[in-house]
Amino acid sequence: MDKVELSEAEWRTRLSPAEYAVLRQAGTEQAFTGQYTDAETTGVYRCKACGAELFRSEAKFHSGCGWPSFYQPTSGDAVTLIEDRSHGMLRVEARCARCDSHLGHVFTGEGFSTPTDERWCINSVSLTLEPVARD
Fold this sequence. Notes:
mainly beta; three-stranded antiparallel β-sheet; globular
């Protein structure tokens, strides 16, 4: 996978202010406001910053948390996990492995009936959905 490395000035011109705040400054969009929170379209979710494939709709589920939730990324090397101790808590941050953009956080052991017992809580603004036609 080719890494995408741009200056912060280049990221600012490529992304909207809201996208930049989440993807490059590890912000969070307001709950229940994201475009993909309740989306049920079949397709591929890509990184808004670089276009890397991150998730597939088959791994998306309704968690009720206010952000799109997935139980796993498309591949093991699509996302980088980083320990996040910000805001006085211990969490696992998810970043795009290709461009190092912030996507959201991963939570485990919440009791969802998913194959991985993980909830990848991802900001809609960090994603682009590429619909796939059903056969």
